[in-house]
Every structure is written in C-alpha cells, then in structure tokens.
Amino acid sequence: THAGTFKASSSSSEEFINSFSSGRLGIWKAAISGFLQYPIFGQGWLNGDVVNAVMSSITNAHNAFVNVLLWTGAAGFIPFCIYLFEGLKKVWNNRKYLKDPSEQWLIILVICIFWGSMLSSVAFVGDDSHLPGILFFLALGYLYYLNCHVGKQDQ
User: Fold this and answer.
1) Of the candidates 127, 94, 132, which has an alpha carbon nearest to the alpha carbon of residue 113?
2) How far apart are CA 25 and CA 103, in angstroms?
3) pTM to 2 decimals?
4) Which end of the chain lies in a sparser environment, N or C, as judged by fewer CB atoms within 10 Å?
C-alpha cells in the first residue's frame, strides 16, 4: 500500500502498519494466535510453525516476549517477565551505586540488547541468541551481583 492510496478503513490501516513494520504485525498476530491454541505450556521451544506459515523465510516472531509467550505459554512467560523486570528494576533503581564506567557501560549494554530484542530475530532468547544472549544474561547477572554487593556494604 502506498501512502497516496491509504484509506481509513481498519483493514487498510492494519495493512499499512504491517507494511510499515516489515510484516511484524502479521507475524505477532500469528504468534499470539499460536499461543491461544496452547496457552498454558505453549507450542514448544523454538517451534515457529505458526510464524513460518505467515512468512516462510522466518521461524520466530522477531520479538523476545512474543517468542517466549508462543514457545512456553503462560507457564514460561510469567516467570520470564518477573525475572527480567525485577532484575532490570533492581539494577535501574540502584544505578547510583555503580560509579565505575565499566559498570555503567553494562547498563547500556543490557538496555540495548533488551530493546533490540523487541524488534529483531537476534534476541537474548531463542535460536539466534548466541552472543547477545550470553552478553545480556552475564551483564544483567553481574549488575545484579554488584547491586547486592554494594547494598550490603552500605548497610
């Protein structure tokens, strides 16, 4: 759909958003539908059949959260979110204790990988997670350790 031929109907606006997002909207909708088929335990780790049916050249939803929801269902998605958000919240709230530039750089690394995982197949979980996954969880774990260690020293 070209911008000049854009119509205000819900179908054409959805097509416009889908084309603007490089097809991600359609992929995410297919993944959510796949999750709804097996909402408790999901489709199975790295099972991208429902996504592959929408776009044959890909096997994941290009979003870490949608992938985990599709693959593991609520049983994996809820603990995954709790772990990530609690860890990120703790690191962010205690960032003032991280005075060394290398520690501050780790926060930026974690945020960049986290943000990139929302729009890319290269995420911190999944089939393309080799280096980003290792860097993300090592950096987040080390920052969490530093925050716990610094917190005990301040008490």
Assistant:
1) 132
2) 36
3) 0.74
4) C
